[in-house]
Design goal:
Elements (H helix, E strand, L loop, with lengths): L1 H18 L2 H6 L6 H24 L7 H45 L7 H26 L3
C-alpha cells in the first residue's frame, strides 16, 4: 500500500510538471519526439554560432553598413529559430512526462473495482516504470538535483 501511495505522489508531481508552461505549447509547432527537437535545437544553435562568427569576422575597415545589417539580421533570425526550437524541445520533454502520466491514470481507471492493492501495484508497474523513466529523463535534461 505504501508503494501505491508513492505512485500517487509521483503521478501528482508529474501532472503538475506536465501542466506547467502551457503557453509555450501554443507558441511552437508541437512535437512528441525529444530527440528530433534536440537535433533541431542543436542545428539552430550551430547556425547562430556560424552567423555570429561571420559577423565577428567582418573587417571594420572594409565592411559596408549593408553587410553589417545583413549579418546582424541573420543573427537575429537565427536567435528567433533558437528560441522557437528551445520551446519545442521543452514541450517535447514535457509531453513525454504528460503521456506517461496519462497512461498511468488510464491504467488505474481501467482497474476492476475488486482489484486489491497488491494486484493494482502489479498491474500498474509498467506505467509507473515508464513515468519514472520520463521524469528521470526530464530531470537529467534539466540537471535537477
Amino acid at each position: 500500500m505504501k508503494r501505491f501511495l508513492r505512485t500517487a505522489a509521483v503521478t501528482t508531481a508529474a501532472l503538475v510538471l506536465a501542466g506547467g508552461g502551457a503557453s509555450a505549447a501554443f507558441a511552437v509547432d508541437p512535437t512528441d519526439d525529444p530527440g528530433k527537437a534536440a537535433a533541431d535545437l542543436c542545428a539552430n544553435i550551430n547556425q547562430l554560432s556560424s552567423d555570429t562568427a561571420a559577423l565577428n569576422a567582418l573587417n571594420p575597415s572594409t565592411a559596408t553598413k549593408d553587410q553589417i545589417k545583413d549579418a546582424t539580421d541573420k543573427v537575429q533570425e537565427d536567435w528567433k529559430d533558437v528560441a522557437e526550437s528551445t520551446a519545442t524541445w521543452n514541450q517535447a520533454k514535457k509531453n513525454a512526462v504528460k503521456t506517461a502520466s496519462e497512461n498511468l491514470k488510464k491504467a488505474y481507471e481501467n482497474l476492476p473495482g475488486d482489484t486489491t492493492g497488491s494486484q493494482a501495484v502489479t498491474k500498474l508497474a509498467p506505467q509507473v516504470q515508464a513515468l519514472n523513466a520520463s521524469i528521470r529523463d526530464a530531470r537529467r535534461e534539466l540537471t535537477c538535483p
